[in-house]
Amino acid sequence: MHRSRVYAVIIDTPTAEAARAAEFWSAALGVPARPLPDQPQFTSLRGAVPGLVTAVQAVDDAPGIHIDIESDDPDAETARLVALGAEQVGRWLECRILRVPGGQVVCVLPVESDPELFDAQARTWP
């Protein structure tokens, strides 16, 4: 058995537009935009979606929105999603990058949230 939960909503934006996109989303959602010093490709939009990390990510790819799923067993969660029809298309550090039916991207990563939040919200899978 393993557990997982939606951890983040990420707004993927081409690098050249990321600062402008962060300003827009900050104003549109009424939350501060704060660059993450240790991960400069991300600008946090803390509080935009209660209980979830929300951020603008500068990417060298097409714009879009993707979700991150955190799991206490990322390999098992990846296998579960692949069995449901996803395809693993890459990996970045500890993150497994999947393309799901419909073409969207989902990333599976180890637990990042506060352990109490994870324990309270994670679903258990066989």
Overview of the molecule:
There is one protein chain. By secondary structure, the protein is of the alpha+beta class. Helices cover 23% and strands 45% of the residues. The chain has three helices and nine strands. Strands 1, 2, 3, 4, 5, 6, 7, 8 and 9 form a nine-stranded mixed sheet that branches. Strand 6 (87-92) and strand 7 form a beta hairpin. This is VOC family protein. InterPro entries: Glyas_Bleomycin-R_OHBP_Dase, Glyoxalase_6.
Q: Classify the secondary structure makeup into a structural class.
A: alpha+beta
Specify the biggest β-sheet. Answer: 9 strands, mixed
Extended strand count: 9
Give me the number of helical elements: 3
SSE string, helix = H, strand = E?
EHEEEEHEEEHE
End-to-end Cα distance:
5 Å
Amount of helix: 10-25%
Shape: globular
**Mean pLDDT level:** 97
Q: Are there runs of 5+ residues with pLDDT below 50, and where?
A: none
Share in β-strands = over 45%
Q: Provide the gyration radius in Å.
A: 15 Å
Protein name: VOC family protein
Organism: Pseudonocardia zijingensis
Pfam families: Glyoxalase_6
InterPro entries: Glyas_Bleomycin-R_OHBP_Dase, Glyoxalase_6
